[in-house]
């Protein structure tokens, strides 16, 4: 089944449909409609956050889902599928691919990635797992640990990569050449040309989120070119 899923998403665009509680579009129904629009537009997969959103999307969308649960724990910076509790929930929701933070940062409870993923893989030997990495070294380590897919999701979003200009095509290409695993480009892809550059680097697929499904951030990007911060006082 895993190989079939990889064949379905190969060479295509995965659209991330997510909205956190503090965002205007936070709603499982709205994320479902975003996913339907993405499917109709030609997407080959959806990346979604929370079991509620995944279930709502599943009602109307037949595409493979990369499932995550974002949850903050007080003893760790890791918040994308941080513990077995989230992994269990995503597998019960039948996410075809489960993505989790695969950075060098210590996980909740003081666990290393090696310890955590060893437990995860033992419990779910047939589940597809995607490693959300931020550096080349983390991608190589994730490949060594047995992740099925290597993603550049967190490049530019960890304290030690946040100054990087995105998308980092060089990093993407290096992971494709060296990991021996399917690579998914994710992070900072704003234009069709950037998407093409990522695909030309040899990735399995690419994820675009903010540029398609977060109108607040899209609006801010346009407004910033005008030197404005909001609605003028005289309107």
Notes on the structure:
The protein is an alpha/beta fold. The chain has one domain (2-224): Alpha-Beta Barrel (TIM Barrel), CATH 3.20.20. It has 10 helices and 8 strands. The chain has helices at 2-9, 28-41, 51-60, 84-92, 113-123, 136-145, 169-178, 192-200, 210-213, 215-224, and strands at residues 13-17, 45-49, 65-68, 97-101, 128-132, 149-151, 183-186, 205-208. It has an 8-stranded parallel barrel, surrounded by 7 helices. Helix 5 (113-123) links the parallel strand 4 (97-101) and strand 5. Helix 2 crosses helix 3 (51-60). It starts with a helix and ends in an 11-residue tail after the last helix. The mean pLDDT is 96.
Quick summary:
With about 240 residues, the protein is an alpha/beta fold.
CATH fold annotation: TIM Barrel
Task: Write the CATH architecture name.
Answer: Alpha-Beta Barrel
Average pLDDT works out at: 96
Low-pLDDT stretches? none
Write the layout of secondary structure elements.
Layout: H1 2-9, E1 13-17, H2 28-41, E2 45-49, H3 51-60, E3 65-68, H4 84-92, E4 97-101, H5 113-123, E5 128-132, H6 136-145, E6 149-151, H7 169-178, E7 183-186, H8 192-200, E8 205-208, H9 210-213, H10 215-224
Parallel strand pairs: 1-2, 1-8, 2-3, 3-4, 4-5, 5-6, 6-7, 7-8
Helix pairs in contact: 2-3
Fill in the keyword field for this structure.
TIM Barrel; 40% helix; 10 helices; single chain; 8-stranded parallel barrel; alpha/beta; 8 strands
């Amino acid at each position: 089944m895993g190989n079939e899923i990889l064949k379905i998403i190969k060479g295509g665009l995965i659209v991330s449909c997510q909205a956190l509680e503090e965002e205007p579009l936070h709603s499982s129904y709205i994320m479902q409609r975003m996913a339907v629009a993405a499917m109709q537009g030609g997407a080959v997969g959806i990346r979604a956050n929370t079991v509620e959103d995944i279930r709502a999307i599943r009602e109307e969308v037949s595409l493979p889902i990369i499932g995550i649960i974002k949850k903050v724990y007080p003893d760790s910076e890791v918040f994308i599928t941080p513990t077995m509790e989230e992994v269990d929930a995503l597998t019960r929701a039948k996410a075809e691919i489960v993505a989790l933070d695969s950075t060098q940062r210590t996980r909740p409870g003081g666990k290393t990635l090696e310890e955590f993923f060893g437990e995860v893989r033992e419990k779910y030997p047939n589940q597809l797992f995607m490693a959300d990495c931020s550096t080349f070294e983390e991608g190589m380590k994730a490949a060594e640990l047995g992740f099925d897919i290597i993603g550049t999701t967190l490049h530019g979003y960890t304290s030690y990569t946040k100054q990087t200009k995105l998308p980092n095509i060089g990093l993407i290409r290096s992971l494709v050449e060296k990991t021996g695993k399917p690579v998914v480009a994710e992070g900072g892809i704003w234009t069709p040309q950037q998407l093409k550059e990522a695909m030309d680097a040899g990735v399995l697929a690419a994820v675009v989120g903010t540029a398609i499904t977060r109108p607040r951030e899209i609006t801010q990007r346009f407004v910033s070119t005008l030197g404005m911060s909001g609605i003028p006082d005289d309107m």
